[in-house]
Automatic annotation (TrEMBL):
PANTHER family per record: DNA GLYCOSYLASE (PTHR43003:SF6), DNA-3-METHYLADENINE GLYCOSYLASE (PTHR43003)
Basic and acidic residues bias: start-end ranges: 25-34
Keyword DNA repair listed: yes
Keywords: DNA damage, DNA repair
SUPFAM superfamilies named in the record: DNA-glycosylase
Region (Disordered): 25-44
Protein name in the entry: DNA-3-methyladenine glycosylase 2 family protein
Organism of origin: Streptomyces pakalii
Length: 306
């Protein structure tokens, strides 16, 4: 039962850092317990792993975060643990340019960008989130993992699953995609990505522009999906989500008070944050100065083929 301990900087918000990796409260691959303990299951290059992340205060050394791992991928997961917790992130280089961003930066100074080092575990659920509501995408993820995922090693909580291998994803029958609410185009994009999974995983070692290009070689994976994936895989502070229905509206309202907004307008507003645009957008969302989403309600929350 190998483990590794990491002393986080101050301030540090473990829940806010890891929550972006959880696809809804019922995610079979990522769970937060009431006591603050996190459980993650992953399929690493060395095999499946169950990772438990606990947070405690030591009287001598101060705050410590400990990862304990089970399974063939345990050593790999523990080697990557600091990066997963945001140790490679550099929030101190961020400079707020608007009062709403500055206020959110002060309030959420413990936010760090997690880096998983894994592509497919974020790419598949990101494709599932195209063109539908978040709740529907989370349902599809839960249903598919419960049916085709693998029981994790170690003492993982009941109901957790290891995400399927690329080969297993490719064997999912068409009717099971349909029952999970996944249309033909999204299922086809996932199957195409699984056919090139080893080449896509190479993006975890690339700079952001090269990684974005690599993922978008797959038909059905566009700027939206690539950015959503690499925000988690690389912990990339500049991986701004383009093609989202709500984000340009939220950014425009928060920074200017104007309703409405396009990707082009959002890029102009966030130009002072070049290199940190994803972090700026996350802080804007955390800041809470957002328009009434009922005024911008649409049947789908994502734009097609993104």
């Amino acid at each position: 039962m190998p483990s590794r301990t990491w002393a986080p900087p101050a301030p540090y918000d473990l829940a806010r850092t890891l929550r972006v990796l959880r696809r809804g409260r019922g995610d079979p691959a990522c769970r937060q317990e009431p006591d603050g303990t996190w459980w993650r299951t992953s399929r690493t290059p060395d095999g499946p792993v169950t990772l438990r992340i606990s947070d405690r205060l030591d009287a001598v050394t101060g705050r410590l975060i400990t990862g304990t791992a089970w399974g063939p991928g345990a050593d790999w997961a523990l080697e990557q643990l600091p990066a997963l917790l945001g140790a490679d992130d550099e929030p101190d280089v961020f400079r707020p340019r608007h009062w709403v961003v500055a206020a959110a930066h002060r309030k959420h100074g413990g936010l760090r960008l997690a880096r998983t080092g894994l592509v497919m575990e974020s790419l598949v659920p990101s494709v599932l989130e195209q063109r539908i509501t978040t709740g529907s995408a989370h349902y599809a993820w839960r249903r598919l993992l419960n049916q085709f995922g693998e029981k994790p090693p170690g003492p993982a909580p009941e109901g957790m699953r290891i995400p399927p291998t690329a080969a297993t994803w490719r064997m999912v029958p068409s009717w099971e995609w349909h029952r999970a609410g996944v249309d033909r185009s999204r299922a086809a994009a996932i199957l195409r990505a699984c056919s090139y999974a080893p080449r896509l995983e190479e993006a975890a070692a690339m700079a952001l522009p090269e990684a974005m290009n690599r993922l978008q070689l797959i038909p059905g994976v566009g700027p939206w999906t690539a950015a959503e994936t690499l925000q988690r895989t690389l912990g990339a502070p500049d991986a701004l989500t383009l093609g989202d229905l709500h984000l340009p509206v939220q950014v425009s309202y928060a920074l200017t008070g104007a309703r409405g907004g396009t990707d082009e307008q959002m890029l102009q507003l966030l130009e002072p944050y070049a290199g940190q645009r994803h972090r700026a957008a996350r802080l804007i969302l955390l800041g809470g100065r957002l328009p009434n989403r009922r005024a911008h309600r649409a049947p789908h929350s994502r734009i097609a083929h993104l």
